[in-house]
Design a protein that fits this description.
The chain is an alpha/beta fold and 472 residues long. Helices cover 25% and strands 25% of the residues.
Length: 472
């Protein structure tokens, strides 16, 4: 009987810990670690083999039970997981640890509470994986040492779906037309200027990137309902999708425009995209879900990775981060998504630092965007406007420089004049013949004092005025 008990114990141990290593063994050599629950270990095996053959990584799958058995100095399980990651990144031999993939919900593989900058300071659905990327053995506690991503799967089916999509995506060997397509879904809101911000982000991309825009206002040239959005994604395919507007876990802009039930209409098999969110998305606990997560685990469709905040969103700060991401996605370094979070050159103070901590990467941190820099597009990447439009400047308010963009349907003599609140002319911003299309310029005026100003576009018989606010 005693021998039988010992045998059963050994079987349980071998099942829980399929890779017979000691985590504190300094001779370990892994640069990619998958941390998951015992029930998901077997489903991670195929993905491990893929990353080893495709990327040349040394991959270790370790379940939380083994971590807790060897690292248990803290009462918080997430602190023990973090200690393990830092230990591996400090003491294991080459190749040095670079990537960490957490597979499971924020309860199964626990994450850290995100302290918000205002009451209530804590919300059970505001979680962050940010601290897993910081090596506690380094003196620099503000620099991320490890690239961390999460697959917030609730079941083995979710795990299998996500990994199969990544394997398919990474095994695409030939260039595809949709590699260079981006989609902006934005809310028509003059106060926040989501339209102008989308156009500005598009202007930062290479000329061979084709941008498509959909908005909820039926008076806009970019108006599109949920059917047109789904048809474009499924038929044309996109590499990156931007959501710019007010939304929550279950809807974008408003329920009638696009909600979580519409994810079932995504049938973009093989043309999987990366999503970037302006609005917040809750962490995945036991019973809740989000648009962000449902797109990730959508079988034969949806996304393969997502970047979004899990707490309060500071629009201006997050928009600066989006600009930084776009600037660094399309460059010669071919960054991974983990590096995109790891290296953005923004200050570690105030709302910037809070927003950095609140952004989670859902998906494989070693993923790279599918983009073909060799494709040449000899047409303007955005559609020629059918009328005249003066957009709100961005940012607004501003304290040094701001971007002003406008559209004209035919070649015209264009003037843009800046006025103060008394109607006095302050400066001439544009006064020349412009070709049809979309135009944008940076306005910097160091001699102006703080206050409210108006700028007026005149082109042919068209006149439109917008308000800008300068805060020094």
């Amino acid at each position: 009987m005693k021998n039988l008990i010992v045998l059963l114990f050994l079987v349980c141990i071998s099942t829980a810990f399929p890779q017979s290593i000691t985590l504190r063994d300094t001779t370990n050599q892994y640069d990619y670690i998958i941390i998951t629950t015992p029930e998901f270990v077997q489903s991670c095996q195929t993905f491990k083999q893929h990353k080893e053959s495709y990327n040349g990584f040394n991959v270790l799958i370790v379940d939380t039970g083994q971590i807790y058995s060897e690292f248990n100095s803290d009462s918080l399980p997430q602190s023990n997981i973090r200690e393990f990651i830092s230990y591996a990144g400090t003491h294991w031999q080459n190749p040095n640890l670079k990537y960490v993939l957490l597979v499971g919900t924020n309860v199964q593989v626990p994450s850290f509470d995100l302290q918000m900058p205002m009451p209530p300071y804590f919300n059970p659905y505001h979680k962050t994986d940010y601290y897993y990327g910081i090596n506690i053995n380094n003196e620099d506690t503000l620099t991320l040492s490890f690239q961390v991503g999460r697959v917030p799967a609730k079941s083995i089916v979710d795990v299998d779906i996500y990994f199969s999509k990544v394997i398919y995506y990474e095994n695409i060997n030939s260039s595809q037309s949709w590699f260079n397509n981006t989609l902006f879904i934005y809310e028509d809101d003059e106060m926040f200027g989501f339209d102008n911000f989308c156009f500005m982000l598009s202007s930062l991309m290479p000329l061979n990137i084709n941008s498509k825009y959909f908005t909820n206002a039926d008076t806009s040239l970019n108006f599109g309902n949920k059917d047109s959005i789904l048809n474009y994604i499924n038929d044309q395919g996109v590499s990156i999708m931007f959501y710019e507007g007010h939304f929550n876990d279950s809807m974008i802009i408003n329920k009638d425009y696009f909600d979580i039930t519409d994810i079932s209409g995504l049938n973009n098999f093989g043309k999987y995209f990366i999503t970037l969110f302006t609005g917040g998305q809750y962490a995945i606990l036991d019973s809740n879900s989000t648009i962000q997560n449902e797109m990730l685990i959508r079988e034969n469709g949806g996304s393969i990775a997502s970047l979004g905040s899990s707490g309060l969103v500071y629009w201006v700060t997050l928009r600066s981060i989006h600009q930084d991401w776009v600037n660094r996605l399309y460059n010669e370094y071919n960054l991974t998504l983990g590096q995109l979070i790891q290296q953005y050159d923004l200050p570690n103070i105030g709302t910037y630092y809070y927003m950095k901590k609140s952004i989670n990467l859902l998906g494989d941190p070693s993923l790279k965007l599918k983009y073909d820099p060799t494709v040449y597009v000899d047409e303007i990447k955005t559609e020629t406007p059918h009328n005249y439009v003066l957009h709100s400047n961005y940012p607004n308010p501003y304290n040094f420089s701001t971007k002003i963009s406008y559209e004209i349907s035919v070649q015209s003599n264009v003037s843009i004049i800046l006025y103060d609140v008394l109607g006095r002319e302050v400066a001439t911003l544009v006064n020349e013949v412009k070709s049809s299309g979309k135009h944008q310029f940076d306005f910097v005026e160091s001699n102006l004092v703080s206050g409210v100003y108006f700028y007026t576009l005149r082109a042919g018989n068209f006149t439109q005025t917008r308000k800008m606010i300068l805060l020094k």
